[in-house]
Amino acid sequence: VHRLVTYIFVYEDLLSLSCGAVVIWYFAGSFERNVGTMKHCFLTLTFAVLSALLYLLLEPLVSRVSEVGDAKGFLPVAFATLGVSTTRSRMKRTLVFGCRVPVVLVPWCVLCIAWFIPHSSLLANLCGLLVGEAYGLGYCFCLDFPEAVGSRLDRVFPFTVLRRIPGLKYIPGSSAERRASESS
Questions:
Q1: Which 3 state secondary structure label does DSSP give 92?
Q2: Coil vs helix vs strand at 101
Q3: Secondary element (H or E) of residue 96
Q4: Half-sphere exposure of residue 71: CA atoms within 13 angstroms, side-chain side
Q5: Angle, helices 37-63/75-87, rounded to nearest 10 degrees
Q6: Cβ(74)–Cβ(45) under 8 Å?
Q7: 60-72 pLDDT, tens digit each
Q8: Which residues cross the membrane (predicted)?
């Protein structure tokens, strides 16, 4: 069961680790600013488990048609956060390599690009994207909890420690606290 989460920490070489780090920094950072650090940690674990379960469900079916790579690295979770961000975005169009495309197509364009990242699994990334899209469209509403609960959880153990680490920017769970910290 522990492998449902630990696969996100497995990398084959330095190149796949650096590609994963760039994706984490770019996509997960903006997602964390929108939901807060505590909820981001919760959703990271949840997206990792749900992506792994979907991968385990689809892998026997897809392996009959073509070769399937093992799920490794943080990319499936990054695709889940990208799927949530683009699904809930108010923007209609954005620039991708100089071309204006609908925002909902951005994760699919990035998925095509991620196919060329060494040691990344297309099926695992697709599973992460599908989990993120489902959450973004509201099909996983049971994962959302009230801001009061998030604000209360911000004041318990590991998050109180995270607040005190110098150089680490902790983003509060409630939207009012996030706006107050942004303005200061």
A1: coil
A2: strand
A3: strand 93-96
A4: 28
A5: 110
A6: no
A7: 888 777 667 777 7
A8: 6-28, 40-58, 94-117, 123-145
